[in-house]
């Protein structure tokens, strides 16, 4: 029997695919075909992303040390220095275990659909059900995640305005307008100037590294040194209201895990990456290891040289500003350093728009979304999923406007990101682990974990379960409608919506990539 040159999307009943794992091993995805010199442009997307760009793509979209630098106020309220230091170690090892597991899967099948395609291909039963469920989880997580960086940038800009002009009082509509302004340029560049993204990746990567060195030098040279006891033994559990050291430590850990989440974004660009089966796994590995190492170093230096906590205003929305100002004594230097951090976060927005629009497009192409034909459209001239990109821009704009009406509603929606992304990592790793344990072994690509595969997969699953178990808890007590953690209920709503979609029409509509034999 000869294998067709192209993978055909078909809708198959469970009894037709109960041996799907054996079929999938021989499936050539569009990415595989391109890597072997076949069908280099299977869906109208041009492969233009080179090695340096794909590496920088994953590194910048995490920007872990920068992300933690502008959000560590949450860890200070829960757990404090102890949670920050030991949590950075746990998060670093955990994210590397998860990243290496996904890199192995990416080498097997470097597909834009990533998590939902892997769940469908490696699920021991009901592949279409798991694929559709996983697709809704991943797509929802990333669509709402698009609102995260604009809100962080808006907080940075507002905080700098307060720092320089103490009489300024930010209004919610100010925040919304800033968020919309920050998404305009990345959206336009993704629409008409995507070829310039290579240069943006390179610029962002250079700033990411150089700024890290500058921060380390500034803190060590000018910062006020704290004692080792402060760094290793100070556990704060009396600010958030929990009054329980274990719970406070676990909640403080989430700030670290948030900073290293999202490395799967490069997977969703797979159809535009040259030599995809080697470069995408390499990008994931470097994104996890480089960011984890830089985060760990930054946390140590920050804790040792941030000075006493009393020097940081308790109500400061961005403590980083006051850490730098206390160290340098210069508003100009503080403004410059914080602005450069904002530049790196801004570069990440270019990547997020590109990545999420491709994920939406791919899920629509596999008939996972309502109005799939509309969102699966690829503009013939621009060579990009135009309608999917417009949808992502629309979602971020709506999220920005929601902030005017209710900050609680806005925070509830974007809180889905970390929760759902961790769940989206869990299912494909679990399924590939079951495949390894039951046999036959999966069809490995150029990168494989070998004898370490099963232990690394188990470590990744344990890490994900531990982290997710803390995510539904509220950060502060007593719980009110304004500080309630809505991640759990929002995630539950996504699951209910996905299940309804499956029973109403998804079980007929959703297609799994299966190879036909002649």
TrEMBL record:
GO terms of molecular function: transmembrane transporter activity
Main location: membrane
Organism for this UniProt entry: Lophiotrema nucula
Stated name of the protein: Amino acid/polyamine transporter I
Pfam families on file: AA_permease_2
Record InterPro entries: AA/rel_permease1 (IPR002293)
Tagged with keyword Transmembrane: yes
One cellular-component annotation, GO: membrane
Cellular compartments annotated: Membrane
Transmembrane segments: 48-65, 85-108, 129-153, 173-193, 205-222, 242-263, 284-306, 336-363, 384-406, 412-434, 446-466, 486-504
Superkingdom of the organism of origin: Eukaryota
Presence of keyword Transport: yes
Annotated membrane topology: Multi-pass membrane protein
The organism's taxonomic lineage, starting at the top: Eukaryota, Fungi, Dikarya, Ascomycota, Pezizomycotina
Alphabetic keyword roster: Membrane, Transmembrane, Transmembrane helix, Transport
